[in-house]
């Protein structure tokens, strides 16, 4: 008799192990959003399979739960040693002190890569170690919570948190197929657990020793905390050879693929900014000067220590320079580059080890992070008059490369040059030509769009993408800035591109009579600069509808120097009349919201997150419905234990206690007398469970399922509205251990 019985028991156990495997694997699939695919994926899947298979085999041998834990942990440890021991293990499988000393080194390297990089990360040995180890531990935890502790709802909460971490860290479009697969795996796990729970015997799942509820709850809590704590630091490394500036939520990587980041619906506050200047400055992080026709390369100078300080801004003697101070408090920004105004001449209050690249006055660090920093930056803004800048030619700064287009005539370059010549045909100075280009880009002929470049296939900064953008005349800041810079170079003017943040939106807060501006992640921006001899790098703002266009007032205007509006860190235009900070009007819509923030919002992200949360909230009730229907089917087939357990769980859901020491007859009598259960139908169920318990075999009781339904209706009718709502949304029976009836009823199950 034991062999068939064992076979019946093993099949549900194998099915449940497979269901847990599918749930864990689908929960980890969103990692592909932030980590490039590779050997780590197959290794992690192998680790999960090995751990769950070991647990299944030990249970098949009918060993206690503690042995299951020991064996699974041993399999995990041996696998990690073989995979990442690096030849330090004894016999290749037994970790030694040298093996253990490698663990903190691998962990530190992996966490630094996660902290400082930009997705998608390349999973080297350190990051692969972290992923595979975490995947194995997650499999062990889920195996115990679902199979041993019989608390699949807590496992669902944990897996949902794991699933959402990559989505929070690197928001993107809805992966409908992936989400459906994950939801299906979770529902399968719940359904299989319910079926195996209801079919298992007292020596099986019901009789297995359990992990304490506190342990299982701790797993779910830890997963939620991980989702909140890990997500903000998930972005990935800037590689020294990367050439295409991307911001991944709250970090910057040197590329010009900003579209995906601007299209992401979730946004966070990156920093706050206040300044004693007439208007808050743009904040630069990275400059890109070299262009090979396909990509813009970030500047690569020899860094000098920040303690050495900055040289003062050098301009022609007759060009006025105004000095201001900006205070920046970083809230959510993890990057090697520090956001600062340009041109900076001094920084106070910065912690850590930082360096500067002199030719562009950028500040960076390989050891420290801007996160949580509160610092002040002094910056000097050249303020030439209109006449002065018109008399000055755009020229290559001393000590710099030519800053020209790639050698050799290219069809795309020729077409772009013809367009630039046509737009600037009526101008006679370099400055007027650049203003003409700026005015042309900001005209109604162009539109700001995050969608058109993707739909039309020119989402990039290469020559062909720029040529397509000039034809379609629809794109975002990267296209405007890159097109402007390339057109300037076709006119023999040295240009470069800067990536940083717009000045943000004003708040109601003031400190030292300076308005605090808040800068959010969607205000990531790119703009071009052109170098003028005796003045320096002059920024321009070609992006339609964003920022403030560059313009200089005539020196004949009295007091114009201090009434002009600085834009993008250097140039100025007459300040418009506004109660907000001068110069911010062009960057706001009618409600005062930043235009760049407004266009970046995509409603699908919040909708997706809302659906996910709603699904998590309704899962307990859905699972209870699945269990109820399964038991009623078994009761209809004459299973007295299933019928009685459904009565007990219904009472628990409605807040009615049912101690394990109370006999079915005593509980049935109490439910009739105190809680409205119909006496006749309750007698049918009590009689059936007593016969099954004492006779050792279940006599078929006619209409047993109908009797259960009648008892449930009677109990619900007597319960108040709050208890009925609680029973539907958060069934208490899901968190309690099974009621133990007397005799052999449980074995009859």
Give a written overview of the molecule.
- With 749 residues, this protein is α+β, with helices and mostly antiparallel strands.
- Helices cover 47% and strands 14% of the residues.
- It has 24 helices and 20 strands.
- A six-stranded antiparallel β-sheet has the order 8-11-7-3-16-15, with no helix packed on it. It has a five-stranded antiparallel β-sheet with strand order 5-4-14-17-18.
- A hairpin with a 4-residue loop joins strand 4 (283-291) and strand 5.
- Helix 5 (125-148) runs antiparallel to helix 6 (152-169) and helix 14 (463-472) crosses helix 15.
- The protein is elongated, with a radius of gyration of 34 Å.
- It starts with a helix and ends with a helix.
- The model is unreliable at 1-9, 201-249, 558-609 and 739-749 (pLDDT under 50).
Name its key features.
24 helices; 47% helix; 20 strands; elongated; alpha+beta; 749 residues; six-stranded antiparallel sheet; 14% strand; five-stranded antiparallel sheet
Provide a brief overview of the structure:
The protein is of the alpha+beta class and 749 residues long. Helix content is 47%, strand content 14%.
Write the layout of secondary structure elements.
Blueprint: H1 2-28, H2 39-60, H3 65-84, H4 97-116, H5 125-148, H6 152-169, H7 176-199, H8 213-230, E1 246-247, E2 252-253, H9 259-263, E3 269-275, E4 283-291, E5 296-298, E6 304-305, E7 320-330, E8 344-348, E9 355-357, E10 362-364, E11 374-383, H10 386-390, H11 411-423, H12 430-441, E12 447-448, H13 452-455, H14 463-472, E13 474-475, H15 477-490, E14 495-501, E15 505-511, E16 514-520, E17 524-532, E18 536-539, H16 560-563, E19 564-567, E20 571-574, H17 595-599, H18 604-636, H19 640-653, H20 664-675, H21 679-695, H22 704-718, H23 721-729, H24 745-748
Parallel strand pairs: 12-13
Antiparallel strand pairs: 1-2, 3-7, 3-16, 4-5, 4-14, 6-9, 7-11, 8-11, 9-10, 14-17, 15-16, 17-18, 19-20
Helix pairs in contact: 1-2, 1-5, 1-6, 1-7, 2-3, 2-5, 3-5, 4-5, 5-6, 6-7, 6-8, 7-18, 11-14, 11-15, 12-15, 14-15, 18-19, 18-22, 19-21, 19-22, 20-21, 21-22
């Amino acid at each position: 008799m034991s062999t068939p019985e064992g076979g019946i028991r093993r099949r549900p156990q194998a099915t449940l192990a497979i269901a847990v495997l599918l749930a864990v694997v689908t929960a980890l699939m969103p990692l592909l959003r932030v980590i490039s695919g590779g050997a780590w994926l197959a290794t992690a899947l192998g680790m999960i399979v090995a751990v769950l298979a070991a647990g299944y085999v030990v249970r098949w041998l009918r060993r206690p739960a503690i042995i299951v834990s020991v064996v699974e942990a041993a399999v995990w440890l041996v696998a990690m040693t073989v995979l990442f021991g690096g030849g330090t293990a004894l016999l290749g499988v037994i970790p030694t002190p040298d093996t253990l000393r490698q663990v903190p080194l691998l962990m530190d390297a992996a966490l630094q890569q996660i902290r400082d990089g930009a997705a998608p990360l390349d999973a080297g040995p350190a990051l692969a170690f972290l992923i595979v180890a975490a995947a194995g531990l997650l499999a062990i935890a889920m195996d115990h919570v679902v199979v041993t502790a019989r608390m699949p709802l807590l496992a669902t909460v944990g897996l949902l948190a794991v699933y959402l971490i990559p989505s929070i860290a690197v928001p993107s479009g809805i992966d409908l197929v992936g989400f459906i697969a994950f939801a299906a795996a979770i529902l399968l796990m719940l359904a299989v657990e319910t079926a195996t729970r209801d079919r298992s015997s007292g020596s099986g799942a019901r009789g297995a020793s359990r992990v304490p509820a506190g342990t299982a709850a701790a797993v779910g809590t830890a997963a939620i905390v991980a989702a909140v704590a890990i997500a903000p630091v998930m972005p990935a490394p800037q590689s020294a050879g990367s050439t295409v500036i991307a911001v991944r939520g709250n970090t910057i990587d040197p590329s010009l693929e900003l579209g995906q980041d601007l299209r992401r619906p979730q946004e966070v506050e990156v920093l706050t900014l206040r300044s004693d200047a007439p208007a808050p400055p743009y904040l630069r992080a990275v400059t890109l000067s070299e262009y090979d026709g396909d990509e813009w390369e970030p500047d690569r100078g020899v860094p000098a220590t920040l303690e050495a300080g900055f040289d003062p801004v050098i301009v022609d003697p007759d060009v006025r320079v105004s000095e201001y101070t900006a205070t920046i408090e970083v809230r959510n920004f993890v990057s090697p580059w520090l956001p600062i105004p340009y041109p900076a001449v001094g920084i106070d209050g910065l912690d850590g080890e930082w360096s500067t690249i002199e030719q562009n006055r950028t500040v960076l660090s390989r050891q420290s992070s801007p996160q949580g920093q509160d610092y002040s930056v002094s910056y000097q803004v050249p303020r030439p008059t209109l006449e002065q800048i018109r008399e000055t030619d755009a020229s290559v700064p001393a000590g710099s490369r030519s800053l020209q287009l790639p050698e050799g005539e290219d069809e795309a370059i020729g077409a772009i040059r013809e367009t630039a010549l046509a737009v600037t045909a009526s101008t006679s100075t370099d400055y007027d030509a650049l203003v003409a280009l700026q005015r042309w880009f900001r005209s109604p002929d162009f539109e700001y769009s995050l969608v058109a470049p993707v739909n039309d296939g020119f989402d990039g900064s290469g020559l062909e993408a720029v040529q397509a953008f000039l034809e379609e005349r629809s794109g975002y800041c990267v296209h405007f800035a890159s097109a402007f810079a390339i057109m300037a170079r076709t006119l023999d003017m040295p240009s470069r591109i800067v990536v940083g943040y717009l000045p943000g939106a004003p708040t109601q807060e003031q400190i030292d009579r300076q308005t605090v501006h808040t800068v959010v992640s969607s205000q990531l921006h790119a703009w071009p600069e052109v170098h003028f001899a005796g003045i320096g790098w002059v920024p321009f703002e070609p992006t339609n509808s964003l920022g403030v266009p560059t313009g200089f007032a005539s020196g004949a205007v009295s007091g114009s120097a201090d009434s002009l509006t600085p834009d993008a860190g250097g140039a100025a235009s007459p300040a418009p009349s506004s109660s907000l900070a001068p110069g911010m009007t062009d960057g706001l819509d009618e409600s005062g919201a930043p235009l760049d923030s407004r266009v970046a919002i995509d409603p699908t992200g919040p909708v997706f997150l809302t659906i996910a949360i709603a699904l998590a909230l309704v899962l307990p009730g859905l699972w209870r419905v699945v269990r109820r229907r399964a038991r009623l089917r078994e009761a209809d087939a004459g299973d007295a234990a299933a019928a009685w357990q459904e009565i007990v769980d219904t009472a628990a859901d409605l807040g009615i206690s049912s101690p394990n020491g109370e006999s079915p007859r005593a509980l049935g009598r109490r439910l009739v007398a105190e809680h409205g259960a119909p006496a006749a139908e309750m007698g049918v169920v009590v009689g059936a469970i007593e016969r099954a318990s004492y006779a050792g075999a279940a006599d078929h009781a006619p209409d047993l399922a109908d009797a259960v339904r009648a008892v449930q209706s009677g109990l619900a009718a007597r319960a108040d509205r709050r208890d009925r709502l609680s029973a539907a949304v958060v069934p208490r029976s899901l968190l309690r251990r099974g009621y133990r009836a007397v005799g052999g009823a449980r074995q009859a199950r």
